[in-house]
């Protein structure tokens, strides 16, 4: 056999441990997780394990290579170049798995008892395509729940995070499949839980087995520790010799022999200590895992913590609340760590009082070359420096060298926020910076004095394959930053004034100088994420811009800024040219050229203009930062007055307002100014030209950022401050929206749904030619006058019949309640609305109510409506649409016309399955009352399809309460035998020979039941003979009857599993089965009075349980088996002597108890008569007659009891005979086995003797040769 283990990807949930090792080889109980699974697979004979690997396959292979020889198992690798989900790896490993035998599939982070042998036996017993292991949980609402048949394990459906209770069994991540499942899966990203399993369950090919022992998904730290406790307690029961014992050990504790535990330690419970660890004296460990090479200092107290490899914990340290330390972490003395997640290679020098991820500015940079300036960057990160500006921070974050990129923020896979002590925060998503914010403090703060620091390490901590492969995420620094990068890093330890002086000195030595200009009106300005205008104007601009510059000006690069509607142009010019002696002269000439040419881009109303860039531009690709008309200006240094700001910024655009963000009590006054421009172009030009510009006359630098409009927050503020006004306004708005917009829309969509003809998938069911089809088609073409109830057992083809009637017919609605199980009223109303075209549905109101409730606590009540109100509203609107259509009905009622037809399929079964019976009754009352009203008014035909034999009686009660009415009931039976034979021949095709005898067997056992015929044809196509297929089907039916009818199943054992109590007695069912097996059809009254003794409730419950059904024979209500297959199963059960006798024993005992009860009553009455006549010499004649009658009754009861006792004796003798026969057979088999074993031993002895003789002969020959 083979097995596939889904190893997965990065293992982000178990970080920071998985930053050093792939998750499957992280030690769990001093053994790699995946080795627990491989060893369990070896024990049941699995000879090859395939690992579906996506992350670090070489490391996995190197680690597991020694275990292949040690365990005697082959380990193969299926490498996913891209993640394929949980099903795609099976298709990728098709060639390795498809050897004709079942194979196991399991997730790599599952820890349990691994009952693979029981799972394999159960899988082979049911014959399905797949089996999954399920486990019981206390809180099923957090998981996807598996709903299945208790008696057989067949899975019915999967319910994701149910809000109402549907079960408490969830997928345990351990499966076994037949190779045929590979035909269902394509080699693409696919979820086996959400796509493959539901399809298998729909085909009745998926089963489940409950795991009895412990189970845990240890893929995240909290569950890792919980799973460790479960595992150690399991070892305590099964292998206690593996656990540590002695002084200071409490509960189950696992300690590697190479570790040292000093005296005075108190360890346990649920503690694992790996190899080469040192636990110094006075240490207390509880619910903790200590990995290899770790040292814990004296008197430390550690609880609920995972300590990574080669870490060191100081003295008097306290750690708790699921703290996780990565590899090579050093914690100083006397610290408190509360729920901290500490990345590898860190030194912790300050306490962590609240749960947090220790990341700060420790960026995981893959330094491929440790050369300048990379080394200086790492030294800055490790040792601390002055605070960087936002521009410098982002520049270092985005790129430090062309060979150095940020590979990951290794704590969260999708999003994370990086916050430093300087109040700078960076928001990452999928490896791309999404949002960046920085607040400059009044004084510089050394980062080395913050809560964490790092040790020197030159190896790369974590690598990801090219996060920036996609063009959208690529970041290429502008050309002017490449020349300034060395100076930018040096600026960490120098002032800004020194940098500017140094720059001027360098530039003064050459006549070739650089400059940058900003050109606007090149693209439409992007104002939000939903603004897609720029996508339509990706026109080339390079030639046009080059034509605007003089020939002796060299353009180095054009940095497009599509969000801001312009571009930076970096150019060089020769200052020795008299025309360009100063940059002002050059800019004057450029402005003249731009004004004369008047170049227009993207059909803009204004021509492009240029302005000189004085500062250092902030070139970024942050997704959530968009231009606005307002700038927030931060002063690094002295502040500028409003007058100075106005004179500085007015040349770039008209200014609406200048104010400071808020007054502060500091001596320096406010440090931020808000400047609002009239047009967005002015704010953009100001920021791009003056950002990060140093003004020596003011001794300050300006940092500019766009001030985003927070409209949603303002709306939330209004709700919070004025709920009494806003809630009624919203209610009025919702009412007006419903009346003016929703109701007309809903009426339109219902009318559209009615007017569209019905189409169904083409199925091979032309063999079902029923006379009821023409009757119904004729009935529906004339005015409605009654409700139609079509009742038939499941699988008899009633849905196919109504589909043929509705095919290509307009004015038709099909409400399919069987399409998905509606466990609550909200699901039903949503499905009902969709089927009739009621849109927008009430789910939109629920979503809107959730939004309001998120804003204000009382919002939900304002928009929530009751189930009764929703149903009445939907049905009322549907009735209005039907009434409008009724105006177009023909005047002559005898004229054929396609009158509206509403078909409701599976309604009564859905009502019975609904959790809330109160709401189920509301829905049933609303729908049936509407159906009666609609048919009585003549607006539409209403048809109910049901497999419930008593559904018609429910509607009759409603009609009686309404003063009478008509209901037309059509009882559908099975098709004729000749049609069934034609269907089988058509399904199996001419290549499968079928004899006349086979056809007779099919008709006798299956009749014309469509479902059973379809199952038989599938088995025949698969290669089974008719005899074998029928035998298997009948055996399966017998098992279902024994489980559902008699409760003879472990899953229905009330004493063990808490199964439901039968609503009838076993003797009642057995006597009914015997009668039906003998006569096929039994009178309802005969069963009611002779078998059930007038207990109509039990008989009706039995008929409603899908074991029996009604059928009218010669205008008499008869009871028969639910299907011809069940009838054949009844006969097989009666012919099973052992079962027949056993059930007869129960029946006779039950009848004897009934007779004894009756006899006791008669005897009590005789005693009363004796008391009445005890004082009299003569017995009155009337009392004498009564006494004689009672004595005759006693004789009758005693005779019946004796008769049944004799039958019980015969049955007991027969059962004893059967037991003896079984013992004899077992003894015979045992003797045969012993005999065969003895014969094998004799053969082995003879072979050994022959070998010895041959060896002796060879020795003699050798001696003779030596003598010669």
From TrEMBL:
**Which biological pathway?**
Nucleotide-sugar biosynthesis; GDP-alpha-D-mannose biosynthesis; GDP-alpha-D-mannose from alpha-D-mannose 1-phosphate (GTP route): step 1/1
Source organism, top-level taxon: Eukaryota
Q: Which Gene3D superfamilies match?
A: Hexapeptide repeat proteins, P-loop containing nucleotide triphosphate hydrolases, Spore Coat Polysaccharide Biosynthesis Protein SpsA, Chain A
| Region feature Disordered, mapped onto this chain | 485-507
User: Which segments does the entry list as coiled coil?
Assistant: 1231-1268
UniProt signal peptide: none
**Transferase is among the record's keywords:** yes
Domain Mannose-1-phosphate guanyltransferase C-terminal spans what residues? 249-358
What name goes with this protein?
mannose-1-phosphate guanylyltransferase
């Amino acid at each position: 056999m083979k097995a596939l283990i889904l190893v997965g990807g990065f293992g982000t949930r178990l970080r920071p441990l998985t930053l050093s090792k792939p998750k499957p080889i992280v030690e769990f109980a001093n053994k790699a997780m995946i080795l627990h699974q491989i060893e369990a697979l070896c024990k049941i004979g699995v000879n090859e394990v395939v690992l579906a690997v996506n992350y670090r396959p070489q490391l996995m292979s190197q680690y597991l290579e020694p275990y292949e020889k040690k365990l005697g198992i082959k380990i193969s690798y299926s490498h996913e170049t891209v993640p394929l989900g949980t099903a795609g790896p099976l298709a990728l490993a098709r060639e390795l798995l498809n050897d004709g035998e079942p194979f196991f599939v399991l997730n790599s982070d599952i820890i349990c008892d691994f009952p693979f042998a029981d799972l394999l036996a159960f899988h082979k017993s049911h014959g399905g395509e797949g089996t999954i292991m399920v486990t019981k949980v206390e809180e099923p609402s957090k998981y996807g729940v598996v709903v299945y048949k208790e008696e057989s394990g067949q899975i019915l459906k999967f319910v994701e995070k149910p809000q109402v209770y549907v079960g408490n069994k969830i997928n345990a991540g351990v499966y076994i499949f037949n190779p045929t499942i590979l035909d269902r899966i394509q080699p693409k990203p696919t979820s086996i839980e959400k796509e493959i399993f539901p399809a298998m369950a729909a085909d009745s090919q998926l089963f489940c087995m409950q795991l009895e022992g412990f189970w845990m998904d240890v893929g995240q730290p909290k569950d890792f520790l919980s799973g460790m406790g479960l595992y150690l307690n399991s070892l305590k029961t099964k292998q206690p010799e593996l656990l540590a014992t002695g002084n200071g050990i409490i509960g189950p504790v696992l300690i590697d022999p190479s570790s040292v535990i000093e005296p005075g330690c108190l360890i346990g419970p649920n503690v694992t200590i790996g190899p080469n660890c040192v636990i110094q004296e006075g240490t207390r460990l509880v619910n903790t895992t200590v990995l290899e090479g770790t040292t814990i200092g004296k008197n430390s107290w550690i609880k609920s913590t995972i300590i990574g490899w080669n870490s060191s914990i100081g003295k008097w340290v306290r750690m708790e609340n699921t703290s996780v330390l990565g590899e090579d972490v050093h914690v100083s003395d006397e610290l408190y760590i509360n729920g901290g997640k500490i990345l590898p290679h860190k030194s912790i020098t300050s306490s962590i009082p609240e749960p947090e991820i220790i990341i700060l500015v420790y960026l995981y940079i893959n330094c491929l070359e440790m050369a300048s300036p990379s080394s200086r960057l790492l030294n800055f990160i490790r040792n601390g420096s002055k605070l960087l500006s936002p521009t410098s921070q982002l520049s270092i974050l985005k790129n430090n060298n062309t060979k150095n990129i940020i590979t990951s923020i290794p704590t969260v896979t999708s999003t994370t926020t990086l916050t430093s002590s300087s109040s700078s925060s960076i928001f990452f998503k999928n490896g791309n910076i999404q949002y960046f914010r920085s607040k400059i403090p009044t004084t510089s703060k050394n980062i080395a004095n913050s809560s964490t620091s790092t040790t020197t390490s030159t190896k790369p901590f974590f690598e990801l394959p090219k996060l920036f492969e996609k063009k959208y995420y690529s970041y290429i620094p502008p050309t002017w930053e490449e020349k300034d990068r060395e100076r930018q890093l040096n600026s960490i330890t120098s002032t800004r004034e020194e940098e500017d002086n140094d720059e001027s000195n360098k530039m003064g030595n050459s006549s070739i100088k650089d400059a940058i200009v900003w050109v606007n009106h090149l693209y439409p300005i992007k104002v939000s994420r939903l603004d897609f205008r720029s996508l339509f104007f990706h026109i080339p601009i390079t030639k046009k811009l080059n034509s605007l510059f003089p020939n002796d000006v060299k353009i180095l690069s054009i940095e497009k800024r599509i969000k801001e509607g312009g571009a930076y142009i970096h150019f060089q010019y020769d200052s020795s040219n008299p025309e360009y002696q100063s940059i002002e002269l050059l800019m004057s000439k450029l402005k003249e050229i731009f004004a004369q040419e008047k170049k227009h881009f993207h059909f803009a109303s204004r021509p492009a203009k240029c302005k000189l860039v004085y500062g250092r531009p902030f070139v970024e690709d942050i997704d959530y930062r968009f231009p606005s008309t307002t700038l927030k200006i931060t002063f690094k240094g002295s502040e500028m007055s409003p007058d100075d700001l106005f004179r500085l910024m007015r040349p770039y655009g008209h200014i609406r307002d200048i104010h400071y963000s808020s007054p502060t009590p500091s001596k320096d006054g406010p440090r931020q100014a808000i400047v609002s421009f009239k047009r967005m172009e002015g704010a953009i030009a100001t920021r791009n030209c003056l950002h990060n510009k140093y003004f020596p006359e003011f001794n300050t630098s300006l940092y500019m950022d766009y001030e985003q409009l927070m409209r949603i927050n303002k709306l939330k503020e209004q709700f919070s401050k004025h709920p009494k006004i806003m809630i009624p306004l919203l209610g009025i708005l919702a009412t007006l929206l419903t009346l003016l917009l929703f109701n007309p829309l809903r009426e339109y969509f219902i009318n559209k749904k009615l007017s569209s003809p019905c189409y169904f998938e083409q199925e091979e069911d032309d063999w079902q030619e029923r006379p009821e089809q023409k009757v119904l088609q004729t009935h529906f073409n004339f005015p409605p006058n009654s409700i139609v109830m079509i009742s038939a057992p499941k699988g008899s083809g009633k849905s196919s019949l109504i589909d043929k009637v509705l095919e290509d017919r307009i004015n038709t609605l099909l409400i399919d309640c069987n399409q998905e199980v509606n466990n609550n009223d909200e699901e039903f109303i949503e499905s009902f609305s969709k089927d009739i075209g009621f849109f927008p549905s009430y789910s939109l109101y629920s979503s809107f109510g959730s939004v309001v409730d998120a804003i204000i606590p009382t919002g939900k009540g304002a928009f929530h409506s009751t189930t009764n109100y929703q149903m009445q509203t939907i049905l009322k609107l549907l009735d209005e649409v039907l009434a409008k259509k009724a105006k177009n009905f023909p005047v002559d009622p005898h004229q054929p016309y396609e009158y509206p037809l509403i078909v409701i399929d599976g309604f009564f079964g859905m009502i019975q399955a609904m959790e809330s019976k109160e709401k189920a009754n509301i829905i049933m009352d609303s729908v049936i009352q509407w159906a009666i009203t609609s048919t009585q008014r003549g607006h539409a035909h209403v048809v109910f399809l049901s497999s419930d034999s008593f559904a018609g009686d429910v509607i009759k009660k409603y009609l009686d309460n309404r003063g009478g009415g008509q209901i037309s009931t059509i009882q559908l039976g099975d098709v004729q035998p000749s049609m069934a034979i034609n269907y089988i021949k058509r399904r199996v095709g001419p290549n499968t020979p079928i004899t006349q005898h086979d056809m007779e067997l099919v008709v006798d056992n299956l009749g014309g039941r469509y479902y059973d015929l379809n199952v038989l044809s599938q088995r025949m196509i698969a290669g089974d003979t008719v005899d074998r297929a029928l035998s298997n089907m009948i055996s399966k039916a017998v098992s279902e009857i024994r489980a559902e009818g008699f409760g003879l199943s472990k899953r229905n054992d009330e004493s063990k599993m808490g199964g439901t109590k039968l609503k009838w007695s076993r003797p009642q069912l057995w006597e009914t089965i015997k009668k039906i097996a003998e006569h096929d059809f039994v009178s309802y009254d005969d069963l009611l009075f002779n078998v059930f003794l007038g207990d109509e409730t039990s008989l009706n419950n039995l008929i409603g349980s899908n074991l029996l059904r009604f059928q009218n024979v010669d205008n008499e209500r008869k009871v028969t088996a639910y299907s011809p297959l069940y009838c054949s199963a009844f006969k097989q059960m009666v012919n099973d002597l052992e079962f027949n006798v056993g059930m007869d024993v129960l029946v006779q005992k039950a009848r004897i108890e009934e007779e004894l009860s009756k006899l006791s009553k008669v005897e009590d009455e005789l005693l009363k008569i004796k008391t009445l006549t005890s004082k009299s010499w003569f017995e009155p004649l009337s009392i004498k007659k009564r006494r004689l009658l009672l004595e005759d009754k006693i004789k009758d009861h005693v005779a019946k009891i004796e008769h049944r006792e004799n039958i019980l004796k015969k049955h007991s003798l027969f059962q004893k005979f059967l037991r003896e026969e079984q013992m004899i057979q077992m003894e015979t088999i045992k003797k045969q086995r012993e005999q065969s074993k003895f014969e094998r031993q004799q053969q082995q002895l003879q072979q050994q003797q022959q070998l010895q003789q041959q060896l002796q002969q060879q020795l003699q020959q050798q001696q003779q040769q030596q003598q010669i």
